[in-house]
Amino acid sequence: MKKIIALLIAIVMVVGVIGLVGCKKDPGETTPTTTTEAPPTTTTTTEAATTTTTEKATTTTTVETTTTVKEIVTTTLPMFARFDFGTDTVAQDNKETSHEWLVNALSYNKDLITVEFLEDSWKITANKDYATDDASDGYSICFDKIVELDYEDLVPGWGTWARYPVNESYVGNPASWEGKHQFMKIRIKNNTVNNMISFGYKGNNGSFGTTFCVSNMYMQGGDDQLTCTPSDAWAVYYYDVGKCCQVSSYAYGAGRNNNEDIGVATSFTQWVELYGPTNAYNGLNWSTVGGPCGGIKFNLLGAEKYHSSVPTWCDSRANIKKGATVEVDYILFGSTIEQLEAYKSKMELAAK
Prior knowledge:
Blueprint: H1 2-22, E1 80-84, H2 90-93, H3 99-105, E2 106-107, E3 113-117, E4 122-126, E5 141-143, E6 183-191, E7 196-202, E8 208-218, E9 235-240, H4 241-248, H5 268-275, E10 296-299, E11 325-334, H6 337-341, H7 346-351
């Protein structure tokens, strides 16, 4: 018994010594402190979106409505560019004319004028002074067969509504839309003292008539001037054919220039001032010739009047002197000024 008790006491003492050795530490050592934080807790709430779709049967009824609209035609005729003079021209490149066509259609009095065919123009020179016994069209260049050739017709008429803008009562009436060749453009070098040109055309009767004269087409000297200073510069002019025809033709223009209630005009501008407000400027000549022109002649050395009753301020042939020369690049006809403005010759394009 005593041996057992002694053995137990020995075991207890050994365990105590081991425990004291294990707990001993260096007096300078610091025991690290580690703090472990619990990770943050994220709460995610997911809401289920609930969509309720209600389908409803829809019945579609289609009603067809037919509306008849009477279209007002407002198209204009193509520009008439046949008279682009020269051996190499824009109009020829566009197959709108040709030098051969122009020469074949041309006639003139070789005793009174000379015509030179240049690359991009024609040069016209007077061979003698004008005399009152000369033929009325002796200094003209004439194209008598323009309808017989394979080109569209030069159709006289108003560029927009009949008689507009002097008379607005026809605007909106489909029957009064004409859209024809009311305006003329010319590019010319006028190296003469003459300040006025003109042209005339054939009607359906095949002859040039007194009512088919288009005069008072002034150049560098300005309106109402029969003479001017010769110039070597090219210039472009636009003319309202209907107005110029009204003034200078016998039957409906200057031949009616005797209305005592209105007054007797003594100049182009006075005629327009007096007769414009009366709607007398109504295109009775140029617009109602009744079809395409059968021929046309240009008086580029001096304007010609066709009747003795037409005032002298509609004629400037007295200015034609021997050696007087004009050079013409082109003469165009169109439905609007804007249409004509867009056209440029090779000479103009090269100058840019």
